[in-house]
Amino acid sequence: MRVLGVDPGLTRCGLGVVEGRRGGALRMVAVDVARTNTDALPEQRLLAVSRRIEEWIERYQPDAVAVERIFARSDVSTIMGTVQASGVALVAAARAGVEVGQHTPSEVKAAVCGNGRAGKEQVTAMVTRILALDTPPRPADAADALALGIAQVWRGGGERQLAAAAGTGRRTGARWDAAVAAQSEARARSAERWRAAEQKARTSRRTP
């Protein structure tokens, strides 16, 4: 499975493509940050972000696009550009007929780090280890985009099954139970991978 992760932003929009399968190793295909001129009109900046995302969808042919799910906060003026860029990413994916997955920051952190409250440096460190990168992806927007891609590969299937079951309006029965079990299994595998990566990191630090 190949996923394009999009960390939405009007000034900096992180783009990261990862490839792999649930329960297996992942690799980074590409990563970059789309930047816009802060002096340009908002509509022109959004157009630039949209074109860049569309270019990446066309170039890398992802099976899914993972976008950060945005929640309203008190700093509305700051988050507005992020929300707009998120909408642009969703439209670009829909126009290309590509499946979309949305994940909150805490969901991504839980999938990648095993801790929904992990800091940015911890997320970057775990992304580096999971993808076996020589150097940490910078800036944080790039690491976050890759983390979104990882979360979609590792958790996307279970989340879709759960959403499908929830859409029936029934929270009982075999279908719902199977969806919950799949989601729990995916989370358990993510936590196990995190523990293994942490153990590997500790061992390497002790080795002279």
UniProtKB/TrEMBL annotation:
Q: Note the InterPro entries from the entry.
A: RNaseH-like_sf, RNaseH_sf, X-over_junc_endoDNase_RuvC
Briefly, what is this protein's role? The RuvA-RuvB-RuvC complex processes Holliday junction (HJ) DNA during genetic recombination and DNA repair. Endonuclease that resolves HJ intermediates. Cleaves cruciform DNA by making single-stranded nicks across the HJ at symmetrical positions within the homologous arms, yielding a 5'-phosphate and a 3'-hydroxyl group; requires a central core of homology in the junction. The consensus cleavage sequence is 5'-(A/T)TT(C/G)-3'. Cleavage occurs on the 3'-side of the TT dinucleotide at the point of strand exchange.
Annotated stretches, region: Disordered? 165-208
Q: Where does Mg(2+) 2 bind?
A: E68
Q: Could you give a single Gene Ontology term from the biological process aspect?
A: DNA recombination
Q: Quote the subcellular location field of this record.
A: Cytoplasm
Q: Give the organism, scientific name.
A: Kytococcus schroeteri
Cellular component GO terms held in the UniProt record: cytoplasm; Holliday junction resolvase complex
May I ask which residue range the UniProt record assigns to the signal sequence?
none
Catalyzed reactions per annotation: Endonucleolytic cleavage at a junction such as a reciprocal single-stranded crossover between two homologous DNA duplexes (Holliday junction)
Q: EC no.?
A: 3.1.21.10
What family does the entry list? Answer: Belongs to the RuvC family.
Protein name according to UniProt: Crossover junction endodeoxyribonuclease RuvC
User: Which UniProt keywords are given for this protein, alphabetically ordered?
Assistant: Cytoplasm, DNA damage, DNA recombination, DNA repair, DNA-binding, Endonuclease, Hydrolase, Magnesium, Metal-binding, Nuclease
What residues make up the catalytic site? D7, E68, D141
**Oligomeric state and partners?**
Homodimer which binds Holliday junction (HJ) DNA. The HJ becomes 2-fold symmetrical on binding to RuvC with unstacked arms; it has a different conformation from HJ DNA in complex with RuvA. In the full resolvosome a probable DNA-RuvA(4)-RuvB(12)-RuvC(2) complex forms which resolves the HJ.
Molecular function in Gene Ontology: crossover junction DNA endonuclease activity; DNA binding; magnesium ion binding
